[in-house]
Structure formats: structure tokens, C-alpha cells
Design a protein that fits this description.
Among the domains are: 249 residues, P-loop containing nucleotide triphosphate hydrolases (Rossmann fold), CATH 3.40.50; 173 residues, P-loop containing nucleotide triphosphate hydrolases (Rossmann fold). The chain is 34% helix and 22% strand. The chain has 23 helices and 22 strands. The strands form 4 sheets. It has an 8-stranded mixed beta sheet, with helices on both faces. It has a 6-stranded mixed beta sheet with strand order 18-19-20-15-21-22, with helices on both faces. Strands 2-1-4-5 form a 4-stranded antiparallel beta sheet, covered by helices on one side.
Length: 609
């Protein structure tokens, strides 16, 4: 037996540390004691310290409200309105960013540190062509470049991020690009200045799995080839599993666990980290997914001691004292008095064959020879059935026609031709021409609940409107119905008095589901309803939908997330360029896909396996 094999984990880590040449180099990013406060002297972020080496990618994960975005923007010496950076140090390549102001800080934001936001559609100036955006960025931060040097830099950067470098492409506007191309333009705007550090805030959340995989591959290649350190903010550990070198887990404004990728995914120590991993649906296998009980505390409502204690099954009286990050093994540090030391074991579920057989009985909705066109044709000869009591998933890349098909089935489409039958009876393609009794039986839940709910109405008013419209119920009877449906989606009756802006994303999505349920539907069409949610909130929404399905509700679930499909669907329809490519049971389509396109979707889906 070798000497290395006889060493403990700690001794092996020390040897690896000594043999790693990069560790002797000064870090590109050094953060120490960083604290961000609200105007009421309540901290949003505190005691944050870490460092990054050249070419190293670290993933920053946690639920909404954990402080991820606050930390990401603080690295740029920025705090949102009402907050301020009150303590700590942020150094990039030896330059103290928090000591810079005015023009010096503006120059550092770009030449030293780049930033890639979540939504390229709002980040890119719609009035400027892509070439103008890139040239203005170069001129502002590197005015010494000649015209020829600018041209060569732009061409090289565009090729690096996988975009065309010809003049025709540079003359396009942002709205003329796909979502993936827009995100690559944001990467180009960051990398064109050759920064030492890049911060990415959920840059692939709204992208389909294939585009997401290409963006992540591009990012990793650029960071490694150019020696750029990166902080990648995400709420989904599965997305970053194959991208990052290290992971930092944040909760209630504190780092609760840091570890190498291998350590964190094989042996997560903090109960919160394990909760996040247990909430992630996986394309590789149908497993039990569990939401983390309770909610993350607001900055002014954090309990004394460990902030996670009220939600933690391992908490004891000793947790009244706030834990600090302590070394566990290798690069792993955890802020927990009762950390897990054993390997992670996720529970696999077996699909219920009886339920699948039951769905073979009768179709609730039948579609035949459906064509849909806008300025061009987007759906071609679509024929399918949605069986009573099942969950049918519509999947495909962006632009495949998923949402167009879903909206047409709900009667919200335009320029549609074909035939629909509902429960054996003809169904109009336009909702306005449908019988009121049928209209309330088919309900649509939109992707963005904040935009779908009237911001000027309370939740009670939002839910009461369809009651009066469809059933003529108002007054005390309506308030009773509203309280009952809120309870059904696990929201307190007091939510009826709240406005949408005062609710979390998960609460707003539950309200949107409640608004559909109050109409007493038989078919619920869900359009990407979990795409922007934390994995824990997503798990609770999926559990709610499964419960509703068990009560007899039929679901048509539109998504680009094949992990979610594995967790909730009975059958799958795969769309590509407006045509059905294949369909079948979840096991048939995901485990034994017939088309190369479906195989690509499955292989590009993030997995914990």
C-alpha cells in the first residue's frame, strides 16, 4: 500500500495543496469581512470572506433572499437602493474596489470585473446595433485601441463566444437575435475588455437545455483559456455541477458551506445544502423530491443563533449560538454544529404503472391537423390526445412551438386551423366562441405570475373576479371560496388582503394556481410555471400539482426542463420546429429516445448523477 493511500483525508488535502502550483500565486479576487446593511442598520450580508484564483470558477447557490445577488453586485462595489456596503474588503488583482469612486470605479467595472445579468432582453440597449454596443464598450474602457485593433478584438471575441463576426451580424439589433444569441452578446460585452474577474447572475435561467449547455461550455472554455476567474450565481446546483471548481452555499446572508465540486456533491455537510440537493428533479431517474420546510427569514427577522435552525431537522438547543465556518475535510468548510458526515443518498421512485394504464382509457382533449401561423407558420399538422387524469408534458427547445400550441389549446392563439374536441364534443379554437361552461373547465397558468396578476388588485380581488364572472358568486360566499382555495394551495387566508408585489415568487405562483383552481377546471395548462423558481419552491409547486392530479385534474405541462418532466409527467410530446418529433411514456422518451434531437435534449439536461 502506498504512503498516499494510508493518509487521512486532511493529510491528502494538505499534500494536494502543496502540489498545486496555482495556490502559491496571489488570488485574482480576495474578499474579507464583507458586510452590506439596509438603512435600518439591519445586515443583508455579513462575514463573507473568500478568494478566487485565475481561471477558477466558483458557484454561488442558495434560495431567493439568501443574499446571492447582493454579494454579486457588492463585488462590483454596488449596493441596491436602500442598502450600503459598511465593512469589508474587495480586492481584484491587488486593486481595492471599495476605495474607488467616480471615473476610476467606472473604469474598473469592465476592465477589472465584468458582469453578466440574468435577462439579456432588458440589459441590451434595443436602440443600438450589436456592433455599436461592442465598439462603445471598447471605446469607453480601452480608448487607446486603434480602429484596426478594435476590429480584430471584436472579431476574436465574437468567435470566442460562438457568434458570427461578419458585418451583417454586427448590424443586427438585440430583438433580432434568439435568447441564446442575446446571452452570448452579453458574454462578448464582458470578455471583450479582457477582465480579471467576471460575475454572472443566473445567466441561463430562461434558456432551454441545449442553449444553456452551449452557454456553459462557452463560459468554461473562455475562463480557462483566458485565465479569468468567475463567480456564477444560481439557485440550481444541478446546472453548475459540471461547470464550477468550487461551490459556496449561502443562506440568510451568510456562507454556510464551501467545498470543492467533488466534495459538495458527494458528501454535502450542511442540512441546508442537502435540502437543496433533495429538491432537485433529475432527468436521469425519477426520485423523491422534497421541498425544504418553512421559508428563509427576512433580514430583520432572523432568529438568534443559526438562521437555518427553525427549518432544520437536526437543530438542538446548542444552535442558539451562531456557528461560523469551520474546516471539515479537504477544501470543505461548514457553518453547522451538527454537520452530516455521511455520503448523500437520494431516494429513487418507481412510476405507478396502474396510473399510467388508467390514462389509456379516454381522451379528454383531442387535437387533429392543427396549423398555426403568425408572420410565418409555427405549427404544422399537430395531432395529439390529452387523456383524463394524466400529466402530458410538451418539451422542446425555444422556438419549437410549445407555448404556441398550449395557447391555442386554451383558445388564446391566432390564425389557427384544425379541429379540437373536448370530452368528445367539438371545441372552438377561440376562447371567446366557447361555451362559458367549457371556458371555466380549461384554465391556463402563465410563466410569469407577477405579470399575470393585476398589481392594483388584492389577491382576494384577483380570485373573486372569476367567481363572479363564471358562477355569479360574490360577497361573503366569494370570500369563503377564496379562503378555501388559498388553503388548498397552502397559503394562509390572510393572503387575500395582500397585493402581488408583497408576495414571494413561489407565493405568487400559488396564487396563480389558486386563480385557475377557483374556476373548477378539469384541464390545467401550465406554461413553464416553475422555470424561474428556486428548486425548493419548485419542489413544493410540483408536489401541489401532483396532489391535484391525484384528485382527478388533468395537466398539460409545458417546460424545457426534462428533470421536471421526469418528476411529474406520465407522457411526453417532443416538438421541434413546430412539428411533433416523437411521443410516448416518460420512460420511453427519456430512457430510449428514438430521434437524435431528443437524445440531444436529454444529454444536455443537467443531472446530479
Amino acid at each position: 500500500m502506498s504512503v498516499i493511500a494510508e493518509m487521512s483525508l486532511e493529510q491528502r488535502a494538505q499534500v494536494a495543496s502543496a502540489l498545486e502550483p496555482q495556490l502559491s500565486e496571489p488570488p485574482v479576487l480576495s474578499v474579507a469581512g464583507l458586510r452590506v446593511e439596509l438603512s435600518a442598520d439591519v445586515d443583508v450580508l455579513d462575514k463573507v470572506s473568500f478568494s478566487l484564483r485565475a481561471g477558477e470558477i466558483v458557484g454561488l447557490v442558495g434560495e431567493s433572499g439568501s443574499g446571492k445577488t447582493t454579494l454579486a453586485t457588492a463585488l462590483l462595489a454596488h449596493a441596491r437602493r436602500g442598502a450600503r456596503i459598511t465593512a469589508g474588503r474587495v480586492e481584484i488583482a491587488g486593486q481595492s474596489l471599495l476605495s474607488l469612486h467616480g471615473e476610476a470605479l467606472r473604469q474598473a467595472r469592465g476592465s477589472l470585473i465584468g458582469y453578466v445579468p440574468q435577462d439579456p432582453a432588458t440589459a441590451l440597449n434595443p436602440a443600438l446595433r450589436i456592433g455599436s454596443l461592442l465598439r462603445e464598450t471598447l471605446a469607453a474602457h480601452d480608448p487607446g485601441l486603434s480602429g484596426e485593433q478594435q476590429r480584430l478584438r471584436l472579431q476574436e471575441t465574437l468567435r470566442d463566444v460562438g457568434l458570427p463576426d461578419d458585418e451583417l451580424f454586427l448590424k443586427r439589433f438585440a430583438h433580432q437575435l434568439s435568447g441564446g444569441q442575446q446571452q452570448r452578446v452579453l458574454l462578448a460585452l464582458a470578455f471583450v475588455l479582457r477582465p480579471r474577474l467576471i460575475v454572472l447572475d443566473e445567466p441561463t435561467t430562461a434558456l432551454d437545455v441545449t442553449t444553456q449547455a452551449h452557454i456553459l461550455d462557452t463560459l468554461r472554455r473562455l475562463c480557462k483559456s483566458q485565465g479569468v476567474a468567475a463567480v456564477y450565481v444560481s439557485h440550481d446546483l444541478a446546472v453548475i455541477k459540471d461547470l464550477v471548481d468550487r461551490v459556496m452555499v449561502m443562506y440568510a446572508g451568510r456562507l454556510v458551506e464551501t467545498a470543492s465540486r467533488e466534495e459538495l456533491f458527494s458528501r454535502p455537510a450542511h442540512p441546508y445544502t442537502r435540502g437543496l440537493l433533495a429538491a432537485i428533479p433529475d432527468v436521469a431517474e425519477r426520485r423523491e423530491i422534497n421541498a425544504i420546510a418553512g421559508h428563509a427569514p427576512a433580514p430583520a427577522q432572523r432568529p438568534a443563533g443559526c438562521s437555518f435552525a427553525p427549518r432544520c431537522p437536526r437543530s438542538t438547543a446548542a444552535c442558539q449560538q451562531e456557528p461560523t465556518l469551520q474546516a471539515l475535510s479537504g477544501q470543505q468548510q461548514v457553518a453547522c454544529l451538527h454537520p452530516h458526515l455521511e455520503a448523500l443518498a437520494l431516494v429513487t421512485q418507481t412510476p405507478l404503472a396502474a396510473a399510467v394504464l388508467q390514462h389509456e382509457a379516454r381522451p379528454l382533449l383531442e387535437v387533429a391537423s392543427l396549423d398555426v401561423a403568425y408572420d410565418r407558420q409555427v405549427l404544422f399538422d399537430i395531432s395529439l390526445q390529452v387523456r383524463a387524469g394524466e400529466c402530458l408534458a410538451l418539451v422542446g427547445e425555444s422556438g419549437s412551438g410549445k407555448t404556441s400550441l398550449a395557447r391555442t389549446l386554451a383558445g388564446l392563439g391566432e390564425n389557427a386551423a384544425g379541429t379540437l374536441h373536448y370530452a368528445g364534443q367539438p371545441l372552438s379554437l377561440q376562447a371567446r366562441q366557447r361555451n362559458p361552461d367549457l371556458r371555466h373547465r380549461i384554465q391556463y397558468i402563465f410563466q410569469n405570475p407577477y405579470r399575470a396578476l393585476n398589481p392594483r388588485q388584492t389577491v382576494g380581488e384577483c380570485l373573486g373576479a372569476p367567481l363572479q364572472h363564471f358562477f355569479g358568486i360574490k360577497g361573503a360566499a366569494a370570500r369563503e371560496r377564496v379562503a378555501a382555495v388559498l388553503k388548498r394551495v397552502s397559503l394562509p387566508a390572510s393572503t387575500a388582503e395582500a397585493y402581488p408585489h408583497s408576495l414571494s415568487g413561489g407565493e405568487r405562483q400559488r396564487v396563480a394556481i389558486a386563480r385557475a383552481l377557483i374556476c373548477e377546471p378539469q384541464l390545467l395548462i401550465c406554461d413553464e410555471v416553475t422555470s424561474a423558481l428556486d428548486v425548493s419552491v419548485q419542489a413544493s409547486i410540483l408536489a401541489l400539482l401532483r396532489e391535484l392530479q391525484s384528485e382527478g385534474l388533468t395537466l398539460l405541462f409545458v417546460t424545457h426542463d426534462l428533470g421536471v418532466v421526469r418528476a411529474i409527467a406520465d407522457r411526453v410530446v417532443v416538438l421541434k420546429s413546430g412539428r411533433i418529433l416523437e411521443q410516448g411514456s416518460v420512460e420511453q422518451v427519456l430512457d430510449r429516445p428514438e430521434s437524435e434531437y431528443t437524445r440531444t435534449l436529454v444529454s444536455n439536461s443537467p443531472t446530479l448523477v
